[in-house]
From TrEMBL:
Biological source species: Ginsengibacter hankyongi
Signal sequence range: 1-19
Domain of life: Bacteria
Similarity remark: Belongs to the glycosyl hydrolase 39 family.
All residue ranges annotated as the Glycosyl hydrolases family 39 N-terminal catalytic domain in the record: 25-522
Active site: 200 (proton donor)
Keywords: Glycosidase, Hydrolase, Signal
Statement: the UniProt record of this protein carries the keyword Hydrolase: yes
Protein name stated in the entry: Beta-xylosidase
Coiled-coil stretches: none
Gene Ontology biological process terms from the UniProt entry: carbohydrate metabolic process
GO molecular function, a single term: hydrolase activity, hydrolyzing O-glycosyl compounds
Length: 557
């Protein structure tokens, strides 16, 4: 009787543990594919192009390519920016010195720094999403002041944001750049790259008018196509289209490319081979806690897809979300903006898992050919450890967010349907963005000999600290036995931030501590691999999923 009482007490406590969120049933059908598991997530970007060749930058780039089954595309600002008075890059600032003019006003091209950046990508099997910008000092129509200092304040929108003083020289710069690229890397390689003109030209990144931006684009496209007719160019990489002004800028630019007069050639139309726009969320502090507002970012994508679909002639054109992030300032730390305190831990990783799954929802709903979604997050040099910048690693140590990308990198093949108790789709989240109920759901896929199910427990706020019991049923398995690998990102697994806190948050890290942090930053198994019998084509699994945790279940045979 004593043992029976203990067992009964345990069961009561077990039920109490999950009373807040309850048990959640997730059912996956492996026999009904619904679409490709398109790896649109394999795109990354950052402002500071010079960080590419730094030690930690090179390490992170290697890791990004190693986690992806396809070539990773990298988009960076400042590939044409001139060196200022300071010796090195700063937050939101870097340079290549690709273009200068001699005392007679003749162009002088110098590709050394730019080549070192692109070489770093090519050596790893990566590809550039080549951003054509910003304006070289000697070509700027308003060159002084030129350099800005983000870290010390002052005017950010200086000479690098202005139109060229000579559009023919701008076109020739592009012609020479592409011609040099073909000579250095070969035409077969260069034709796999993607090109675009400027960044967010509908806001202060561009100090010209809309018509001047169209002229900038037309002349750049003409120079590129003269050097490489097979190369791919698109844009305009404008800001969040949930805003009517940004939406109208995007559609007006598309109309110009389709039907307007080309400023460079005088003909009708300009090459537009993919559509690019940005999607950003808007976290805020509510009653002293962070609230993420995922619906805001999903609304951007929904409106961008609506803009593309409003042009029948663009049916099936590739779409690239050129920056796709929970908010809009990677170089702003938690110290400056407390709402960015989500970035070090599992709130960021669980948000990303839940959010990217909903991009697939919208992609299916609007029948969009989504080529890429760029996570504008990389690494920052000479900053404090875990300073809550929007980055993937700190001082060469991977943060939890990077392990969700590792999970996505394991997934491939065909997506398969998921049914979850009270599960939300993208439209639900957009229409009910204020909800703070736990979002426990999954995305699944299969290939010839594997099934993958990514399950997350996300909450829009950082105040919840409970767990939920998940019962996962995977139907349609035509084998007698499967080998199960269960990977996890939570406060205990795959989490260098929690390890760093356990080490008492050192800013001077010893070699032994670094090794501990590096190990903690890798994707880890939640349980040992195990074989499980398939019963009536089904596999049943039960596990506990804490708030802001992500699990990846891999079944192989």
């Amino acid at each position: 009787m004593r043992y029976l009482a203990l067992i009964l007490a345990f069961l009561i406590c077990f039920n109490c543990l999950f009373a807040q969120n309850g048990a959640v049933s997730i059912k996956v059908n492996a026999s009904k594919p619904i679409g490709k598991m398109n790896p649109f997530w394999s795109f990354f970007g950052y402002d500071e192009a010079n960080y590419t060749t730094r030690k930690d930058g090179q390490k992170l780039l290697t890791e990004l390519q190693h986690l992806s089954p396809v070539p990773v595309y990298i988009r960076t600002h400042n590939l044409l920016t001139s060196k200022g008075k300071s010796d090195g890059p700063d937050l939101k600032w870097s340079f290549t010195n690709a273009y200068k003019e001699d005392k007679n006003g003749h162009p002088v091209y110098n590709w050394i720094i730019l080549d070192s950046i692109i070489d770093t990508y090519i050596q790893r099997g990566m590809k550039p999403l080549m951003e054509i910008g910003f304006m070289p000092k000697d070509l700027s129509s308003h060159p002084e002041p030129y350099e800005h200092k983000w870290s010390t304040g002052g005017n950010l929108w200086t000479g690098w944001t202005y139109p060229p003083k000579d559009y023919n020289k701008w076109r020739e710069l592009l012609y020479q750049w592409v011609k040099h690229s073909v000579a250095r890397y070969g035409k077969k390689e260069v034709t796999t790259w993607l090109w675009e003109v400027w960044n967010e030209p509908n806001i202060s990144y561009w100090s010209g008018t809309f018509d001047e931006y169209c002229k900038l684009y037309d002349y750049a496209a003409d120079g590129l196509k003269k050097a490489c007719p097979e190369c791919t160019i698109g844009g305009p990489h404008s800001t969040s289209p949930r805003d009517d002004k940004a939406f109208n800028f995007l559609t007006k630019f598309i109309k110009h490319c389709l039907h307007g007069k080309n400023y460079a050639t005088g003909k009708t139309g300009t090459p537009l081979q993919y559509i690019g726009f940005h999607a950003k969320g808007s976290p805020e502090i509510v009653n002293g806690h962070i609230r993420m507002n995922m619906g805001v970012q999903l609304k951007d994508i929904q409106r961008g897809f609506e803009a593309v679909n409003s042009f029948p002639e663009l049916k099936n054109i590739p779409v690239i979300i050129g920056e796709c992030d929970p908010e809009g300032c990677a170089a702003c730390s938690e110290t400056r903006d407390p709402q960015y305190g989500y970035r070090n831990g599992t709130m960021y990783s669980s948000y990303t898992a839940a959010f990217f799954a909903r991009i697939y929802d919208l992609m299916d709903q609007y029948k969009i050919n989504l080529r890429g979604a760029v996570s504008w997050s990389f690494e920052f040099e000479d900053q404090d450890w875990f300073a809550s910048f929007r980055d993937l690693a700190t001082h060469g140590i991977d943060k939890p967010i990077l392990n969700v990308f590792r999970m996505f990198g394991l997934m491939g093949g065909e997506r398969i349907p998921v049914h979850t108790d009270n599960g939300l789709n993208a439209t639900d989240i957009i229409s009910n963005n204020s909800s703070t109920a736990n979002d426990i759901n999954a995305i699944a896929c299969k290939n010839q000999n594997s099934v993958y199910v990514m399950v997350w427990n996300f909450n829009e706020e950082d105040i919840s600290d409970s767990s939920s019991l998940v019962t996962l049923t995977i139907d349609g398995i035509g084998k007698n036995k499967v080998l199960i690998h269960h990977y996890r990102v939570d406060k205990q697994f795959s989490n260098s931030f929690e390890k760093w806190k356990a080490l008492r948050k050192p800013q001077q890290v010893s070699e032994a501590q670094f090794n501990e942090l590096e190990k903690a930053g890798q994707l880890q198994l939640f349980t040992s691999p195990a074989w499980k019998k398939v019963d009536n084509r089904k596999v049943d699994l039960t596990f506990v999923l804490p708030d802001h945790a992500v699990s990846l279940i891999q079944l192989t045979w």
